[in-house]
Amino acid sequence: MNITYKAPGKIILSGEHSVVYAKPALVTAIDLCLTCTVSTRKDRECKTHGKELNDGVNIIDKSVTNYLREKNIKHEIVPYDLKIVSQIPVGRGMGSSAALCVALSAALSHLYTGHPLSKEQINTIAYRAEKHFHGNPSGVDVSASCFGGLIFFRKEFEFLKNISALHMKIPAVISQNLVILDTGKPEETTAEMVAIVGSKFNKDPINTENTLFKMEKITKRMVVAVAKEDSRMFEDSIYQNQLLLRELGVVSHEADKILADLSLAGYGKISGAGGSIDKSGLILFYIKNREEFENVIKIKKIKIIPFRQQFRGVEEVGSV
Ligand code: PMV
């Protein structure tokens, strides 16, 4: 038996880091997917995928079986081979590990139970697995990958996450001007960047709380901009957002330099955990002057990823 599931990557439009402090985040699934195929095999020995990946697969597998046991869902654990194909860049904040957790949780739970689980169930299993990779993630990556589309996310407590599907597409007046710039893999991991903001918060709680509060306002403004199809409000939210991310200390000189080079072309903000030492991962960029944008991109050789939303979330793409 072969079971294949695919799950999309994501990009955070607003609210990275502040989401760790129970503020909202606005995130969308992006049309770059990771596909997992599990195939039953007769012998018990599992093929190896390299140590790092094997460890990851074992964690996800355990999360699936623990969940099925805990919920008394009838299942049979069988040996399998695994094939993973991914279009999502790794280590950039596009949610590649979340997409792996989601697609593999969906495929393995289907293999062990003989039927698909609900997206809510897959989300719970994948979030538990993702915690092993990223320490204390908010869960925003996993939810975007699982449910697809535009999501307004807020984690009130560990046991209460509000995941609101916004059921709206970013309107063309806005999305046609959006691109994702890949500034390269940051030196720091997401967990390290979360810890940097954490120590800032501990040292200077009043000012940091104030920045996080402003971030919440900007995230909500961005939602209003999308709902009202107001491109001016949207581009301003990107600009304000970046100022706040800088205050949090998650933007490197290199990322600032790229945005300074592109200052006549439009506005950008880092998206995801960022980086402070060297590269800062992804930049969500709003183009105001396309000719200028294309000139700078060519001269500076900046890699761009098209901004295309994905709406289906995790989906089965075939079982034989
Ligand atoms: O997965 P990344 O690198 O896009 O960043 C996650 C966003 C953070 O808010 C920094 C962390 C989190 O768990 O939400």
Would you give an account of this structure?
The chain is of the alpha+beta class and 320 residues long. 44% of the residues lie in helices and 24% in strands. It is built from ten helices and ten strands. α2 packs across α3, α2 packs across α4 and α6 packs across α7 (205-227). The longest helix has 23 residues, at 205-227. It is globular. 48% of the residues are buried. The model has no long low-confidence stretch (mean pLDDT 92).
Q: Using DSSP, what is the number of strands?
A: 10
Alpha-carbon Rg, integer: 20 Å
**Taking all residues together, what is the mean pLDDT?**
92
Largest sheet: 6 strands, antiparallel
Topology:
Layout: E1 2-14, E2 25-40, H1 51-70, E3 80-86, H2 96-113, H3 119-134, H4 140-147, E4 150-157, E5 160-165, H5 172-175, E6 178-182, H6 190-203, H7 205-227, H8 231-248, H9 253-261, E7 266-271, E8 282-287, H10 290-300, E9 303-306, E10 315-319
Antiparallel strand pairs: 1-2, 1-10, 2-3, 2-4, 4-5, 6-8, 6-9, 7-8
The structure holds (3R)-3-hydroxy-3-methyl-5-(phosphonooxy)pentanoic acid.
Task: Kindly list the characteristics that best describe this protein.
10 helices; four-stranded antiparallel β-sheet; single chain; globular; six-stranded antiparallel β-sheet; 44% helix; alpha+beta; binds (3R)-3-hydroxy-3-methyl-5-(phosphonooxy)pentanoic acid; 320 residues
In short, what is this structure?
With 320 residues, the chain is of the alpha+beta class. The chain has helices at residues 51-70, 96-113, 119-134, 140-147, 172-175, 190-203, 205-227, 231-248, 253-261, 290-300, and strands at 2-14, 25-40, 80-86, 150-157, 160-165, 178-182, 266-271, 282-287, 303-306, 315-319.
